Amino acid sequence: MSRTDQVQAWLPKIAEAALAGDSKKLEIVLVKAIRALKSQSPETCKQLGALLAEHSTNPNGLRWKGSGPPPVDADEGFALVRSESTDNAPAPVMPPTIMKRVDQFVSERKGCKRLLEEGFLPPGSVLLTGAPGTGKTMLSRWMSQQLELPFVTLDLATSISSFLGKTGFNLRRTLDYARSRPCVLLLDEFDAIAKRRDDDSEVGELKRIVNVLLKELEDWPLQSVLIAATNHPELLDKAIERRFDIVIDIPLPGDDERVEILRQSGRQFSDQIPAELLNALAVGLEGTNGSELNSLMSAAVRQHLAGEQELVRSLIEEFQLRLSKRLSGRSLGVVLRSVQANAKGLYKVRDLAELFGKAPSTIQHHLKKEVQHG
């Protein structure tokens, strides 16, 4: 087929999508046309890709609907979404394997012009799974900051309980709002509506919403990013999960991540805590999520500032108050020896017994055992 014939074959499809005001279809048709014409018309395809990239990141580009103000519930008047600032959003502390995938997603989004010029669509949707407190929302906010896009969130669990019976309508209005402008939309507690359609316990409306979501994920525009977060991936409809460009399972923080989260949470005051002590506490905090770690360190700093007490003592008290019951025999010994070694003689066996809520004989036993096994 000649170059002219190929162009003529694509013109009706492009015109049809444009005249219908179907921006997503137009994006897909243009990408397919770029692929088909690339070998014979590289310069034309480069121009098409550049135009597509420009309009896909331009709020006045390929969007025919007026974006308007954030949607509100028609009866109650409350906002369906909330816009959050991403100024100074901290970098999430996660394993390198996780951050590598996140960085790749951000890089491909930022390099969408090059991808489109070659006939490839950039990724536009992410499913984040993981236990509560592992940083899914923090990661979403940081991605929004990196992409320089507004951050919009919808808590689906709250929405369901607030307006069951209108969920589908309000969800569609929220999605239309996010589609109408460049932004990152976070659907939090995603399992509240995206449950398996074979779950007999769910009402008919929620099953219909799953079908709405399937369609939305297929038609999601280039200019926006859709992130869904769930604590219960096993509840999700598998067809929904397959629609996401990438799925990232966020684990509980490991030893290194726990140390860094504690350090970040203490900000400038972390310099007052010996590194050996922080490392030892991180061992004892195995199984703790990032939110709990941040809460523990923040409470210790507040106690230190309000009571003019040494931060080391405040930190140990918070540690004992919240989490010492989780300690195994070996990890307790590690923590005790580190505390004793780094507290400049402040804590004797009796002091440690009081702090950790153990009998002095128990403290002495763990200290000796650690020496024997060290």
From TrEMBL:
Its EC number is 3.4.24.-. CDD domains: RecA-like_protease. SMART domains: AAA. Gene3D superfamilies: P-loop containing nucleotide triphosphate hydrolases. GO terms for molecular function: ATP binding; ATP hydrolysis activity; DNA-binding transcription factor activity; metallopeptidase activity. Pfam families: AAA (PF00004), HTH_5 (PF01022). SUPFAM superfamilies: P-loop containing nucleoside triphosphate hydrolases. Residues 122-254 form the AAA+ ATPase domain. GO terms for biological process: proteolysis. Keywords: ATP-binding, Hydrolase, Metalloprotease, Nucleotide-binding, Protease. Belongs to the AAA ATPase family. This is ATP-dependent zinc metalloprotease FtsH 3. The gene is ftsH3.
